[in-house]
Amino acid sequence: TGSCQMLGNRLVSWASKKQHSVSVSTAEVEYVAAGSCCAQILWMQHQLADYDIIATKTRIFCDNTSAIAITNNPVLHSRTKHIDIRYHFIRDHVMKEDVELHFISTDYQLADLFTKPLDETRFNFLISKLGMLNFE
Asked: How much is the mean pLDDT over the chain?
């Protein structure tokens, strides 16, 4: 799983690691990844609050509509009952309006840079979107 956090249009934090649990669907994988990204964003919001910068309704972009539907549906049903309870805290923060989940096309998912093998063209495209420079 991977995520990157931006402040304005600059990369300030990123994470890439194996998930601790086995997922049975891509929706569950994306849901767990959104939960860990939410935790990082909440930490950043608290840090910014120390500088009197109040950030609410921070957008999290996800390229899986099913994961977004799981987050926006407060009812547990047969497809989500096996997901560990610790990953459902993102629902509470969406309801509190601390964060919002938005769909983004896979073509513009910047976190793919940290989780997938990419060809040179795609790699350079994502690097440019992150604002990184190549000094070669």
From this structure: 82
Q: Supply angle C-alpha 17, 60, 97, rounded to 5.
A: 125
DSSP secondary structure of 62-95: ES-HHHHHHHH--S--TTTTTS-GGGGHHHHHHH
Q: Is the pTM value of this prediction over 0.85?
A: no
Could you report the per-residue pLDDT of 104-135, keeping only the tens digit for each? 998 888 888 888 888 999 888 888 888 776 66
Listed ranges 23-32, 79-88, 100-109; the one with the highest mean pLDDT: 100-109
131 residue type, one letter: G
Burial of 59 (0-12, 13-18, 19+ CB in 10 A): exposed
Burial 37-49 (b: 16+ CB within 10 A, else e): bbbbbbebbeeee
Q: Are 108 and 4 in contact (CB under 8 A)?
A: no
Query: Distance between CA atoms of 15 and 52, rounded to whole angstroms?
Result: 26
